[in-house]
Fold this sequence. Notes:
This protein is mainly alpha-helical. The protein has one domain. The chain has helices at 9-12, 18-36, 42-61, 78-94, 110-127, 132-151, 156-187, 192-200, 206-226, 235-242, 245-251, 254-272, 276-298, 303-324, 327-350, 375-378, 380-393, 400-414, 418-444, 460-493, and strands spanning 67-69, 74-76, 354-355, 455-456. Strands 1-2 form a two-stranded antiparallel ribbon. It has a two-stranded antiparallel ribbon with strand order 3-4. Strand 1 and strand 2 (74-76) form a beta hairpin. The protein is globular, with a radius of gyration of 22 Å.
Amino acid sequence: MLTPIHVSLESLNLLTLAPMLIAIAGGLTILILDLLNDKLDKSLYVMITILFLFIDLGAILGLNINVRGFFDVILIDGISIISQILIIAGSMLFIPLALTSKRFHEYSYPEFFALFLFMVAGFQFMVTSDNLILIFVGIETASLALYTLIALHNRANSYEAAVKYFTMGALSAAFFAMGSAVIYGLTGSVELYKVAEVMSTRLNETGLMIAIFGSSALLLVAFGFKLSLFPFHTWAPDVYEGASAPLAGYMSVVPKVAALVVSIRIFGMYIDLGIEWVRIVIIALAVITMTLSNIMALVQQDVKRMLAYSSISHAGFIMAALALDTTEGTTSIFFYYTLFMFTNLGAFSMLWISRHKNRRFNEQYDHPYEKFSGFIHIMPVGAVIMALFMLSLAGVPPFSVFWGKIYVMQAAVNSGYIWLAIVMGINSAISAYYYLKLVVYMFLKEPVKDVDTVYYNLSKPLLAIIGLATLATVTAIFYAQPLLSYLYYMISASGY
């Protein structure tokens, strides 16, 4: 006779699930309201989304560190709290853009905001678990919603972008599922801390090492797709080009933060076990990714595609820090992406300042460099802000991303990888060319004739978000150290 299992609510620690449940409840609320009355003003859905994001953030800040919940599949440590704060902060920067007077087509659908909240919940599940099954559920929840958000832009290249992203996402999911299956077959567990315990006792078995090689290779491919690492990066420029400019900026930061957290947990486990070839492969991928994407960015004719390749380069930069597997290296990842988030989302949002229905400057691209010729004469403040974002992304001191790059290189040097820090410095120098190219067009070129036919979007929500991104880029000069200290404390307290 089977003995009944008694589970108390206290042992489940359901508060650890609260942030994700709040996001899901927000999405369901929007769908129910639309079902009851489909004539409600769409601004209401924007405000509901922002409200639930604020409640979600409050729930995250109220969590205790280093606790487990819901049958021990939820892990609340320093990394999960920091990454959730970044996910919510990035979402709060993005969603108010839907309040602008001249909106993108997709903002007229209530389903857009419901899917957005479901996507946020998926990202939160990814970063708050070390259970491979729940991580997979989070990946698919977020990815399926994001494919649809891209397609809702309702342009020919948006459908193409959504299909490409879906295809690459399906391949990534398949590799992740196969890699997880191999791990389960080896250890009988999908909990990473239990997997590490089992593997540590059997590392001298030849057959096990071959299987570990297979599982780690499959997982590296899976996250190579998610993080757009070479040679799995080819989808990124086309997908960013097909998505709306603000959504492309959002995609360049938030999904990558979630994927990086999972990568830290999985590949950090392999490196901690002394499997050095995983570290070597990650460093090789990082160096090749940042170098080739920088070279590709040099020859782009479209600013959005240039920023897409730039985002790939930054992802490679951060992967090098992941391979270090030190507290300083892990801290540098979150420090870098906190600073990068505001600057990059601001730069993509600036592309929405000047918009036109027809491709008047170039038959192939929406945002060619010529579009920004003489921008200083047309919109002086806008040109200065965009130049500020470009200088920050290039790592020019003393702007925000400079401090992120310096700290990543410092972590590499302190870990004994001086050559890696030199490679990072060289790549930063290369990237300065294509960032400054846009600055040259804005400040030193003459405006294209008939610029009055171009619409300039000066709505207050867009200007407020760009202003906030600018403020964060500048004030990071003075407050980088307190942020760094907080991140270091949270990550070291979790044993990373």
